[in-house]
Amino acid sequence: MSRHARPQRILLLTGVYLLAVIIGVGSAWLWLTRVDISGVDAGAWRVNLLAGSQDADAYTRARIALGAVLALGRSETLYYTTDHDDLGDSLRAGCRYRIEGLPPPARWWSVTAYAADHFLFPNDQKRYSVNGETVTLDEAGRFSATIGPPADESRGDPAWIPTAGRGGMRLTLRLYGASESVQRAPGSLAAPSIRRVGECP
User: Cβ–Cβ contacts within 10 Å for residue 96, how many?
Assistant: First the structure.
């Protein structure tokens, strides 16, 4: 091997190594944040069937940890998440959304909003989620809640989750003690609808 060929070989091997690292890290991040082959859809929401299961693989456990979810077994808790509304548009913290539907068939349920960094939205009201105790049912037995930037009417509304900024947003619907029918078929849940209200700033 000539004196000039050795540095070229080192550069080539270094380039191949760096490319492999970039591809590996990128594919892992894509898998953790986007790919969910073990889940089923319920409207705009998606539930991971392996969350809290002994069958959960390393990627599933990492995705759950990244989403700040305390994954219990399906008989105890079901976690539905989404980053888009009913039309498929990405949720944005600067927009206002209306969540409506029948109360999920569970002993207790809640909807929580998370910022793109997976943290709760800080707000003066310290209001980060809504649940069956903070919403009011209409004559048809349906509830409605609002998620979006604070407004005058939001300050005294316990069914309003204030958001901040203009980045992405993710919602988590937790069902504690879900009905047996939903436990058997999580995709059968009549999950709350998510509809954007008005224009985004």
Answer: 20
